[in-house]
């Protein structure tokens, strides 16, 4: 099945190449002539692709969670209200939420596709109407079938979104030359460029910051320069131990809460 419009900006797309996903599904890829977004044809194979929500080849999951903890903790501590409420959207097994709560940030978990194993008791409920200072959304945007609707949903929760997704290089690489297409698992169906996010930021009256590769911030706050954002993501592994000393970990408090609930 082909497609003629961009799933982000609704402008025309052109077909750029085809490849085989999940070793069985011939799939056409398209590139937007306006915002640069690259997308697959309509992803009819997703039910098969998500038989296991965390794909078996994702050996970097724990390493990324530690890296995301460092970056997120540093940004929150210096640029946001570190006493606020935070949400990890698409939180997987809950590893990141547990890491952030261990540092001392009041993080909550949400994921429609994956069981919460490590952050039980801290699930986000829309009905609670928590004011969410910052929403994190790691390794999810490339999975979105309808990125516009998904982003609007996220913005209804918080106007500050820290996300990760690999920016697709220029010129657009063929499938054999860029690992992030994820042809072996078929879950990645849309790929962003800086100008794609700039379009989304302008559309929603937000500011956009990026490290130029895989960490991006959409926010209604204008408090940093692009160079500062890149710098702070680089030094976060050094600032994290200092932040941990200044914050009060929630590890013990969480244990007492969960014990009280189960008793």
Give structural notes.
It is a single chain. The protein has a single domain, classed as Vaccinia Virus protein VP39 (Rossmann fold, 3-Layer(aba) Sandwich). The protein has 263 residues and is an alpha/beta fold. The protein is globular, with a radius of gyration of 19 Å. The chain has a 6-stranded mixed β-sheet with strand order 5-4-6-7-10-9, sandwiched between helices. Strands 1-2-3-8 form a 4-stranded antiparallel β-sheet, with no helix packed on it. It starts with 12 loop residues before the first strand and ends with a helix. The mean pLDDT is 94.
Outline:
The protein has 263 residues and is an alpha/beta fold.
Residues in β-strands, percent = 15-25%
**Main β-sheet description:** 6 strands, mixed
* Overall radius of gyration: 19 Å
What's the CATH H-level homologous superfamily?
Vaccinia Virus protein VP39
Keywords for this entry:
four-stranded antiparallel sheet; 263 residues; six-stranded mixed sheet; Rossmann fold; alpha/beta; 32% helix; globular
Write the layout of secondary structure elements.
Layout: E1 13-21, E2 25-32, E3 38-40, H1 46-49, H2 61-79, E4 85-89, H3 95-103, E5 106-110, E6 132-138, H4 147-155, E7 161-164, E8 190-191, H5 194-203, E9 207-210, E10 215-219, H6 226-246, H7 251-262
Parallel strand pairs: 4-5, 4-6, 6-7
Antiparallel strand pairs: 1-2, 2-3, 3-8, 7-10, 9-10
């Amino acid at each position: 099945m082909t497609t003629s419009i961009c799933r982000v900006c609704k402008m025309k797309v052109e077909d750029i190449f085809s490849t085989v996903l999940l070793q069985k599904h011939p799939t056409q890829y398209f590139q937007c002539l306006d915002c640069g977004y690259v997308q697959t044809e309509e992803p009819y194979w997703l039910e098969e692709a998500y038989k296991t929500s965390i794909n078996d080849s994702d050996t970097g999951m724990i390493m990324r969670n530690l890296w995301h903890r460092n970056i997120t903790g540093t940004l929150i501590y210096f640029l946001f209200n570190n006493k606020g409420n935070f949400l990890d959207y698409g939180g997987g097994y809950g590893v990141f939420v547990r890491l952030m709560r261990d540092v001392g940030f009041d993080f909550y978990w949400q994921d429609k596709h994956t069981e919460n194993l490590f952050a039980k008791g801290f699930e986000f409920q829309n009905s609670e109407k928590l004011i969410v200072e910052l929403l994190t959304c790691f390794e999810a945007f490339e999975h979105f079938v309808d990125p516009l609707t998904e982003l609007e949903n996220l913005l209804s929760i918080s106007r500050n979104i820290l996300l990760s997704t690999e920016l697709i290089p220029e010129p657009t690489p063929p499938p054999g030359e860029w690992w992030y297409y994820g042809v072996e698992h078929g879950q990645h169906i849309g790929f962003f460029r800086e100008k794609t996010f700039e379009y989304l930021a302008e559309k929603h009256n937000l500011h956009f910051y990026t490290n130029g590769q895989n960490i991006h911030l959409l926010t209604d706050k204008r408090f940093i320069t692009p160079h500062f954002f890149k710098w702070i993501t680089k030094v976060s592994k050094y600032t994290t131990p200092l932040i941990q000393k200044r914050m009060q970990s929630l590890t013990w408090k969480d244990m007492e809460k969960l014990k009280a609930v189960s008793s």
